[in-house]
Write a structure and sequence with these properties.
127 residues, alpha+beta, three-stranded antiparallel sheet
Length: 127
Amino acid sequence: MLRGDERGSAPAEFVMVGALLTVLTLSVMQLGLVMHVRNTVLDAAGEGARFAALADNTLADGAARTRELITTAIGPSYAADVTITSGDYLGHPAAVVTVRAPLPLLGLIGLDGGLEVTGHAALETLE
């Protein structure tokens, strides 16, 4: 056998490089899914806060709107922990919606409560 003989190395290299590229591709796709879930939940929290801040709505209306948006876009398991309060934000009375959702690690399966986002909206008054 010759030392410089490289016959048979191409299939081994193909398998190693193919496995590496597959893992890299799946990782990038999972990162995209995580960002999609985060942005969707954040947008729903902001929309729920704006809905609750309207003069003719209550805080419960904003929480219901947030749950509805998340359930429609991602699923009911992501809308399980929605809280809404009224408080001050940057010195103004505001509706504050906080959503705690699973952080997807493998597909949509992930750590419960791993993702927490908050949406704020200034409360309207009729004065």
